[in-house]
Amino acid sequence: MPGRCQRRIVSSVALALLCVWPAVSARNVPRPSPTGGLLPIVLGVSTAQSGVAGEAGKQLITGSQAYFDIVNQAGGINGRKITMLVKDDRYDPDLAVQNAYELITKDQVFALFDSMGTPTLTRVLPLLEYFQAEHIVTFAPFTGSDPPRRPPYDRYAFNVRASFSEETEQLVEYFYSQGSRRFGLFMQADSLGMSGESGVRQALAARHLHLIDSVTYRRNSTFQTDMSEQVKLLRASNVDAVIAMSIYEPGSRFIRDARGAGWNVPIGILDSEAATQVLGQANGAGSVLSIENVVNCQVVPSPNDTRYPLVRQYRAHVLESQYSPKSLEGWLNAVVLSEGLRRAGANPTRLDFIRAMEHLRGWNPGLGVDFNFSVDDHQGLHTVWLSKLENGRWLAIASRER
């Protein structure tokens, strides 16, 4: 680990690349196909399909495609089918900007969809501002960070999931209720980590506490990256709870190294179900370390929680081998986008779709909570689901709405 907490601040300015790109028109107007029908609504997807976040990106797309298959088999939305044009950005911000530019200008997609990651989206948002006259938005990005939720970029994004601030608030609240007062943070050294750090500090300040210590790891670290130094630093600070703002492989490695060192500190992690799957695969039969005392925070219910109509529908159309929080989130993203398209009317323009989404209020997709978008609020869900691992099983703690 190079140094203690060397933070790499990712610039949000992608406009430098635009200096060598010509301004082009990318208006998306439905046109008749050569066979006489309407062309499909094409969604541009720049997401990780390989690399450290590749498996998560694939799961997200799997869930979305499963729902779009149902829509298309029923004739599409007002006669137009929905397709996704997927480009692999490998969780690389520069490649994400390049992909987004090509999707907008060359492929002339209707909207960007299922974008993966905070560091990548943070770089793409200025590009959407540059093309603001074309009314191109990113829909359901896979991030809870602040940039797509606050000016000046909130107008170019429709967020389905809850924010990192809402996730970290619930993790801090749970550990606080269990007696923790000395919080530490394990974080990715970029905009993902900084977004989480902001949420953690805000939640602690509301309880008259401060962050005891934080440690970082480099983006694109894998499960093979040793995290023992980060464990030592937080343990030496005598923290009694750790919030992990990480993607699942380095988060899994942090858990493994903590437990391997005999440190059973409570750890809160985003999507620890995926993290523990990686742990189980890596440790192998007969050598699995204890991963108790881990709390999972995610923005959809468990794929096994059939109390929710949306989960039951998802399970009826997705292979059991593909059940995961990520694929369920992808399914939800597709459900919400399809509803917006239905309300936008026949052959909608991008602006028609934006206006329809901003009036999508009091609508429940089958999760027991209403979505309430507006002109000033482009976030649909404000609920997170917590669970904890006990005796090898995930047990729901509570779902709270801010």
Lateral strand order in the biggest sheet: 7-6-8-9-10-13-14
Query: What is the CATH architecture descriptor of the largest domain?
Result: 3-Layer(aba) Sandwich
CATH fourth-tier homologous superfamily of the largest domain: Response regulator
User: What is the overall pLDDT average?
Assistant: 87
Number of domains: 2
Q: What share of the residues does DSSP label as strand, in percent?
A: 15-25%
Number of distinct helices: 12
CATH topology of the largest domain: Rossmann fold
By CATH reckoning, the class of the largest domain would read Alpha Beta
Number-wise, the strands total 14
Give the N-to-C terminal Cα separation. 37 Å
Shape: globular
Helical content (DSSP H or I, runs of 4+): 25-40%
| Biggest beta sheet attributes | 7 strands, mixed
Secondary structure category: alpha/beta
Radius of gyration: 21 Å
Order of helices and strands: HEHEHEHEEHEHEHEHEHEHHHEEEE
Give the low-pLDDT segments.
1-36
